[in-house]
């Protein structure tokens, strides 16, 4: 029987990294930050953000980037909710835009996209900044014991 996509592309590589010496704590932090940075509400920025986080915090770059890439569809899906929350927090007028329009703009002129979405994106970034530490903390607390158990199960028995 074939393994599922997530097992092949995410679970196995994580277990392999744990077997290779990455600590469960570092892996939990890498995965948590990969999720949080992967949903940053500005398209085209998450790879750089994840790379900076991995280098500065000495985290596993392949793990954080793998999660980041998996989350691209979720990042797109969360753009409008982040925009709407930003409008609520800043009591800004509703900016009429859809995900399809954002994707079309992003594939067109970057400068025009930045000019059009600047205020809306700034508000979304502030909302993300408020939610990100909470989400990262929750994910880390969930993942650390799970990865610790996986790490212990993957280790060879002591001689």
Draw up the topology in text.
Blueprint: H1 5-19, H2 24-38, H3 46-57, H4 61-70, H5 72-90, H6 99-107, H7 110-154
Strand-residue fraction? under 5%
How far apart are the first and last residues' alpha carbons, in Å?
A: 34 Å
Task: Spell the H/E element sequence.
Answer: HHHHHHH
Low-confidence stretches: none
Number of helices: 7
| Helix vs. strand class | mainly alpha
Strand segment count: 0
| Number of self-contained structural domains | 1
Give the overall silhouette.
Answer: elongated
Report Rg: 18 Å
Descriptive labels:
159 residues; single chain; mainly alpha
What does this structure look like?
With 159 residues, this protein is mainly α. It has one domain (5-154). Helices cover 79% and strands 0% of the residues. It has 7 helices and no strands. Helix 2 (24-38) runs antiparallel to helix 3, helix 2 (24-38) packs parallel to helix 4 and helix 5 (72-90) crosses helix 7. It is elongated, with a radius of gyration of 18 Å.
Summarize the structure.
The chain has helices spanning 5-19, 24-38, 46-57, 61-70, 72-90, 99-107, 110-154. The protein is mainly α and 159 residues long. It is elongated.
């Amino acid at each position: 029987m074939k393994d599922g996509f997530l097992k092949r592309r995410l679970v196995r590589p994580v277990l392999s990294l744990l077997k290779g010496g990455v600590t469960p704590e570092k892996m939990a932090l890498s995965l948590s930050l990969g999720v949080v940075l992967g949903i940053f509400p500005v398209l085209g920025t998450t790879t750089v953000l994840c790379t900076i986080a991995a280098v500065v915090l000495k985290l596993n770059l392949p793990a954080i980037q793998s999660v980041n890439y998996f989350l691209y569809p979720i990042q797109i899906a969360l753009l409008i909710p982040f925009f709407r929350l930003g409008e609520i927090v800043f009591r800004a007028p509703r900016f009429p835009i859809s995900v399809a329009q954002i994707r079309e703009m992003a594939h067109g002129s970057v400068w025009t996209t930045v000019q059009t979405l600047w205020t809306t994106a700034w508000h979304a970034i502030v909302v993300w900044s408020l939610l990100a530490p909470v989400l990262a903390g929750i994910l880390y607390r969930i993942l650390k014991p799970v990865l610790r158990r996986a790490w212990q199960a993957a280790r060879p028995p002591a001689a």
